[in-house]
What does this fold into?
Amino acid sequence: MTVVYDDVLQWVRNFAAEISDNKQHLSKLDAAIGDGDHGANMDRGMQAALPKLEAVSGDDVGAALKGVGMTLISKVGGAAGPLYGTLFLQLGAATAGKSELNAHDWSSALESAVKGVQARGKAEPGDKTMIDALVPARDAFRDAVEGGVSLGDALQRSSDAAKEGMKATIPLVARKGRASYLGERSAGHQDPGATSSHMLLRIAAETWKDS
Amino acid sequence: MKKLINRPEDVVSEALQGIAHAHSDHVRVSFDPYYMVRADAPVTGKVALVSGGGSGHEPMHGGFVGMGMLDAACPGEVFTSPTPDQMLEATKAVDGGAGVVHIVKNYTGDILNFEMAADLAKEESIEVEAVVIDDDVAVKDSLYTAGRRGVGTTVLAEKICGAAAEQGRSLKEVSDICRTVNSRGRSMGMALTSCIVPAAGEPTFQLGDDEMEIGIGIHGEPGRERAPIASAKEVVERLAEPIVSDLPFERGDKVLAFVNSMGGTPLIELYVLYNDLVAFLDGKGLKITRNLIGPYITSLEMAGCSITLLKLDDELTSLWDAPVNTPGLRWGA
It folds into this structure.
């Protein structure tokens, strides 16, 4: 039960397509509590990452993911650029030299990625950020793998946990990022970063469901 | 959306090309990645000042590149922080061997991107001091928020620190002066209308014809309170009172008063506001010894204003008065 190099590339392509299809939705969520550009910025970054992905030769998953991270850092801007850039850089560092990933590989990659994002953005669960989707997704995946379920099922549980975490941001009062300036007025809105992070994990589960 | 643009995605690059055509005597523009540096950069032996932020606040920051102010500015997409590669290249292009100050407005994106850039510059043996500007009294400064936003004081800090660097002060001195300006400057803004981010195509928020937003930021992010529209005099009181009580400014203090347009408010209204501000501060026993009035830190076409007060001493006053020659601010040169 593994995902191979091409599966990883397909995940990135599908994520880029999902972001493109939902960029207005993401920007609308952002307009409610931020500055309304999350969808446009993520779309610009992912669209810039695609041609670079196709240009990579070989089958090093880590190198491909690192390339995505570098592109996001230089193309997205805002807070999402360094944060998603760091996420992909850490996924890449954790999978460097591998041409396929098993469940344990993905678990430790998620572990590094979430750690990296937290070190950069200094957010904790409950701050109403992407961390609210990423932390439960990481934990659910690790628990599922330790419980011996298949990679495909573990990915689904991780996606479900991200979804719950995303929805749980709605009543929260933001404590990081621009949304925190609104204080109590940030409650009642779903966090756009948690929403795009859920997409990332849902698309992984969908793309790799037969793994 | 009614805007004088060609395509929303080309706004930043075409405006930069316009700046390159218009101001080649002041600045050199790089298009890959985007940044601009003063025409004579790097100035050997001088501390260099680099700032940057989302576009849409013109003339800040690009309009303040030149003698006596910034050495480089990095424009991001509209209301979006620039990226570390831009900041790194700009930092390298202006480093004259005396170190580089990054003047960073306190927004999560700007902070994270400038931090990454400073890490990269240090790897290339360039000494970087980052100074964060967080002067917006509309935002509660607490452990539970991202902290106060950087707004009007940024313009004053760039001018004053630019003068200090021009005088040959050290990296530590220039960055300390920058921190002093930040600690003595306070701002608050308001909006009569929203603005439209070109890529979004619609107003960032909705305000009724009879409403105003008090405590607005400079990115169209909603403020802390919506209120019925009021007179200029009342708006001045609602902005200046929290500013004066925050520092606090005390009777006898000399201040620089900066009345800024958010982009859509005309100069005639700024003078009406300034007139009310003079009376208000007179009542508080504060003496305006310097002023700046006009659109300097804007929010696209938003109608509204911000007020910034900076507590002056002799040193800051003389640095403020020192010659400056940039596209957006020029005197004595």
